[in-house]
Amino acid sequence: MVGLAVGDAMGFPTEFNDMAQIAAKNGPWHTMPLPLSAGRAYVTDDTQMTLALGEGLLEALADGGPLTAERLEPPVRAHFVEWWQSPENNRAPGTTCLRACEALSRGGEWGAASQVGSKGCGANMRVAPLGLIPGLDRQQRSGAAQLQSALTHGHPTALAASDLTAYTVWLLAQGTRPAELLPALREYARQNREHYPADWLGDLAERAHDHDRASFAARGWDECLAVLDRLEGALAAPDPEADPCLATGQGWIAEEALATGLYCFLMLPDDPPAVVRRGAYSSGDSDSIAALAGAFAGAHHGVAAWPAEWVEAIEYRDRLLALGAAWDA
Predict the structure, then answer these.
(1) In sequence order, what DSSP letters do the residues of 122-151 get, joined into one string?
(2) What is the spatial distance between Cα 181 and Cα 171, in angstroms, rounded to a whole number?
(3) Among 58, 73, 193, 271, which is 20 to 30 Å from 229 by CA?
(4) Can you give the CATH number for the domain in which 301 is found?
(5) Is the pLDDT of residue 45 over 80?
């Protein structure tokens, strides 16, 4: 959780900048500082929505019952709407999240609010909490990851990328070695390629234009498999000195945010500060790329990965640590 927020804060000032502008402000990427304002490292909607999801999940699981769609959707919807209404929601939030949360605020079936044409990265940049919750089985983690995406981003690639992102965090937190990660993700995507979790997604697929539910699911998983192939090719000759977006995409869309965040982590798996610096020092959706890269590094190394002064300075520190402590327990 802290790693995600650190990456988000690192990339906040560099989003929408090209490489020359980033270099002019920060110098070499290796020494890029955590940006501070009055001693605080401010984050974007990426961390805010991660907290909304995480705190909604705590409510859904508060009585010790199993995680189901019926238990997850109401509190997560409420927290998403609260974020949408918050005066702190002033960090260049994505249009899809704003439009969907406004629709969710009106009540009714959540599927009517879902933006089935959007595969922006706004769903998988917030899904990391689902990789950290103990006691979930594979179906619960997968279904919940896809449902939280579908509340705003209903495109099948957004669903699959959210599922893969949560699974990545879970694998790393369980001790999977970085070298084992990419084959495990590819196998997971192949196994799920035509699976549609109807008990979590209901009739969402019917709101799109695919022939059937299996085709809807396959469309998303195929795009994720394609970007995993691209990532494998990039890792055959990684270049930490180059803009990572040149290797795996700019990250504005879900599958590219996953791939480029993973690329930054897998290039530098033993140096978490370098991971978030490299993600933030990029020409694309820098805050989301660095947030995902930081989440992966944090899941692998734990909170001790980050300089103590960074942890102390991060906005929403107490809420982030409270979520981590709840799931560690």
Answers:
(1) TTTTS-GGGGT-TT--HHHHHHHHHHHHHT
(2) 8
(3) 271
(4) 1.10.4080.10
(5) yes
